[in-house]
Each structure stands twice: as C-alpha cells, then as structure tokens.
Amino acid sequence: MESVLIFQENVKPSSPTPLHLQNYKLSMLDQIVPPSLVPVVLYFSSPENNSSYTTDSLKHSLSLILTRFYPIAGRFSEDGLSVDCNDQGVPFSVVKITGRLSDLLKNPDPQLAKRLVPREVTVDEKLGVNGNLAMIQVNHFDCGGIAISVVFRHKIADGITIGYFLNAWAATARLSGEPVCPNFISQSLFPQKEDMSNQTNFVESVLKKGKSSMHRYVFAASAIRQLKAKSNIECPTRVEVVLALLWKCFMVASISDGKQASLISQPVNMRRRAQPPFPSDCFGNFLGLTAASSPNENKKEFGHLVKEIRDAINTIDHHYVNKMLGEEGFLGCIGNLQSPMTKILEAVDVLLVTSWCNLGMYNVDFGWGKPIWLTRCDAANNSESMPYINFVLLMDTRFGDGIEAWVILDEKYMKVFDNVEELQTYASIDPSPLD
C-alpha cells in the first residue's frame, strides 16, 4: 500500500490557555516514566460522510477539546519538569492510502501499522525541549475506511489518560453535549521532586535486548471462560488467567534456555485502588509497579500462577497509594519501587507486561461508528527500531469479552513458546480481526 501526504498543520486550542494555567508541572509519578512514545491506531469502516467533511469535523473538534486538555498543545520546558502550555498546538496530518482497509485487515501485517502513524516510534526517544506532546494522523483508504493514529508522550499520559482523551475528542466531534474535562489533581497529590527524575534509569536495567519475534495471540471469550474454570480461583479476571497462561508458556521457553526461575511484572492503574478512589478522569500517570516470581516448572499448577499474579496486583492498595501522597511522598515512592525492582533485578528471566484492557477505546465514536480494530504499532517489533524482548501487551478484542496478547520474545524463546500445547488449545495465532 502506498501513502501520500495530503496536508499537515498544527491544530491549536480554540481558546487561549489562561495565564495561571500556562505552567503545568509533571507529578512525581510522571517523573518516573521514561520519555517514550505511545502510539495507538484505531481502524474504522467507511463512514457515510465524505472525507473532507470528516477531516473538517476532526480538526474542529480537536481544537475545541484541546482547550480542556491544554497541556497536550504545549511543549516541554528546558528542565523537562514541566510543560509550557503555550498553545502551539498538535501536529495533524491527513494521508491518502492506496488500497482497501478490508484487505489490510484480512491478513494484517504488523509492520504496515508503522506507516499509519505520523512519525517513527523507537525506544531511544529523548524528551527534547519544545518537542510535541502528541501527534495525530488521519489515514483515508480508497474504500472510504479510516485509520486514526495518535502518538503521545508517556511522560504526560498513561493508557487511561489516552483512552479518556480519545473518547472526549470523539464525543466533541459527534456533538454529544457531554461535559468532558480532565482532572489535573496529580500535581497536588504527588508533588514533583527533583531527585525523582534519576529513578527513570531503572527502566534500562530491566529491559533486555536481543533478536526478537512477535506473534499476536487472540483468546476468545469461550477460551477465557475455560481458563477461569481451570484456575479454581474465586472470580478470576480475564487478565489474570490470560497472563497466567502466558507466564506458564514463558516458563517452558525459559527452562529450554537453562533458566531456573522467572518473573512477571506489570504496571497497575492506581486510580481505583486509592480510598476513596481517585476520579477516573485524572490526567497523567497513575501507575504502580508489581512483580510476581516463581521457580520454573514444566508442570506448574495453573491456579498457583493465577494466585501469584493476583497477590502481586493486590499489593497496589490504598496503603501503597497513601505512602506516596503529599510532600513526604518521595520516600514512600522509593520504598514502593524498591520491592518489585529488587525482585526484577535479581530475577533470572523477566517477562514485562502492559495491559490496555478495559480502557474503553472500542467505545471511541466520532460519529460514524466504533472502531473495528485497534493496535499499538510499537508492538509491531523489529530488531532495528524496537530491540527489546520478552514483552507482552494485552488489549481488548472488538466486543470487549476477549483479549489480544501481542507477545515479543527472544527468537529462540518464541520457537518453544509457540509450540506449547496449552497455548495452541486456548488461543488463535495472528487471526484476522474481521473473523
């Protein structure tokens, strides 16, 4: 498929940001996050409206919503600790794609998704003074299908914030009249500390480099129900049982490489784990880190792994959150990081996980229907742009009852992982999202 840039411009907020809001400080939790880019692509079937009307509607609604999500239209300050909310705007590109969206989705090529985003996404991103905090590209296919890609700086937004922004933008585009305004309380809850910026170094110490292979495993709702029954755990979640199976398969690959133990680690949304819970519309990064470890055993009991994952997730509770609140929160944050990081750094084999389940991204409707698929194109791995391995990204399936697992492993691990009988029993490998 060939692509042609139709036009590009900076979309600015429809109203200027008030003077008292023009310096947006990163929170202590934002400081911990590395300056990586987070790209997501949403695919839509053909809208009834013509493309010019669609583009005008998207630009106008984006301009309106940026007045409320005003940091996104700004630029990072020189010290990287705040955003200058100067209304410079968000780069907005429109691209014409030769080909049909349905042809792309019949046999999706993960590498093709990289051509649908406004810039290349690599792991060695620098913060960059005056760099854009978000970028958007609208791709029009010959058939009328549309793919909308958004790239965010992780420094200012986690997956929940990105999902909230997309739904707010879409609601504005379809003139829903719903009052949408993010909550900017993170700066007061978790005041920034200059020393905290040094903690981002731990990311490099955890990530492992190597020649990788990527597969997408889709767990249907029926398969997840079977896994839940198999776990013998009370009310297990979709994420818990899918992660436990993936961990079990990773153990088999780890054993084949002579490793004696393994660990699974993932960030957890803290908004609903505080008491009382923080509002779901809190802007920024509200993530706590978990780690569950186990000796590698070929016949490891499935329910035991589910329990290990649940116990690790449950360490992110209101006590965990309270330690980090306020001016004294720096020591609490360091303490919270210390336990999982010690486990991770001492572990023999580490599988890192990010879950984008239950973020509501399949509810994004700009007025022509909800997405038929969505992807994170940074999971479309190759050794040049994304050389890190042993990473899993979980996403909802279209109707919200299944899970897609994008798994990036060392090539020799993938050969073993792929052939584990249980995985072949419960998951489809690289199916069409149209199936």
TrEMBL record:
Pfam families: Transferase. Keywords: Acyltransferase, Transferase. GO terms for molecular function: acyltransferase activity. Gene3D superfamilies: Chloramphenicol acetyltransferase-like domain. Belongs to the plant acyltransferase family. PANTHER family: F21J9.9 (PTHR31623), VINORINE SYNTHASE-LIKE (PTHR31623:SF105). This is Uncharacterized protein.
